Recover the amino acids of this structure.
């Protein structure tokens, strides 16, 4: 559904969020995910492939 680029039209939507779910696969192929929360603006698109996250993962 989504490619690796963040369309500029999504930047305001991303900045307004208070929660992100981040996931990835490690070198062995195991998949993990975590929830990161913060006030609106804690996630800042820096360019079309980079998000700066100013928050901590919930454990």
């Amino acid at each position: 559904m989504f490619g690796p680029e963040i369309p500029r039209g999504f930047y305001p939507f991303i900045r307004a969020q208070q929660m992100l779910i981040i996931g990835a696969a490690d070198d062995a192929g195991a998949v993990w995910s975590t929830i990161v929360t913060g006030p609106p603006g804690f996630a800042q698109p820096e360019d079309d492939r980079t998000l700066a996250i100013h928050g901590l993962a919930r454990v």
